Amino acid sequence: MEFIESGLRGALHRDGAAMLTDLLNDERYQGPREAAYPGEKRYRHRAKVVETLFGAITLERDYFCEPGAGEGRAPLDERLGLIQGYSPGLARIMARVAAQQSFEAAAADLQAYAGVEIEARAIARLANTLAPGMADARQAHRRVNPPVVPILYVEADGTGVPVRKSEAAGRQAKDGQGDAKTREVKLGCVFTQSVTDDEGRPLRDPGSTTYVASFEAAADFGILLRKEAFARGMDAATQIVFLGDGAAWIWELARVNFPQATCILDFYHAAEHLGTMADSLYGADTTKSKSRSKRWRSLLANDRIDAIIARAKADLPSGKLAQEAALKQIAYFEKNRHRMLYATFRAQGFFIGSGVVEAGCKTVVGKRFKNSGMFWTVAGAQNILTLRTALLGNHFDSDWDARSRIAA
Question: pTM here?
Fold first, then answer.
């Protein structure tokens, strides 16, 4: 039966290509019959091969060009929305598969699922062509009156993407040993919460998460994230919550772009720092360090951050290096104490962990960009990030439609 199915699909594709060829070569689709600009010359029946969902077809269309002007124009191509010789329907699918997997795998899946044979490098070229327009469309067609939600969350984090040597030239690795092998992508997410469960724990609204991702500096990235939050209804939200780990750039971003938000430091990052502080005070992996860390975790969960800081200061070790390490951790908790009132935040029905954006670093970035043998240019990675965040944020099709309107 599979043999019959494959043969029937091939026949339908051939018939569909023939019908599409006849339809599009009809004179009614040819556009203006006379030159639109002085000096233009009209060339009749100029052939162009176009790849479609049914296979390759040949268009016979009018072509206009000024003598000696080089590239001319074909009104029919513009009216049909052709993109690099691909039909818009096929181009949309190519962009979607490029966002989800390697270009080689995308080419294989197009062949297997749609019976369309496109080279991997052609998919890459098309994705790089389409992505900037998709990004512009996302900015242009944002909803003017998004629905009002009780709580809107904003989260941010960073993760590395392996890049070509030329893209990392002059950049030092994080450990200070040699040149960097990656460039940091900053990822932000916005989602909403309308209800809690029977025990008062927050529940993220299904399908409400959207993403932004960029290689830009934190200041510029913050503007992108703020725009996304406004598009999602931040100005009408009853409560805004910003979640992140302890990175300084994240809290500066929050201060500048989300001054009205309740800021919460991810509980699990804070708990890790408790363990580090206990090790510096009482010795790494000692019984006392482990027991004190466990006790402090309970205090941290119950708004007892001041008690933790006081105990740590009272137990400073005498050794210079250990004392410096302990004071560094104490400073971390003193600086972030207002972001660590976890019992208060839970009583308000808020999330206290930044797991959504941390998962996004794996699903949005890692799954597509960190496979074996992948080394990206920054521009190429940014283009795929544009397509991928649109796809995973459930606005790919609306961005595509908006892009088409802008292009027209």
Answer: 0.90
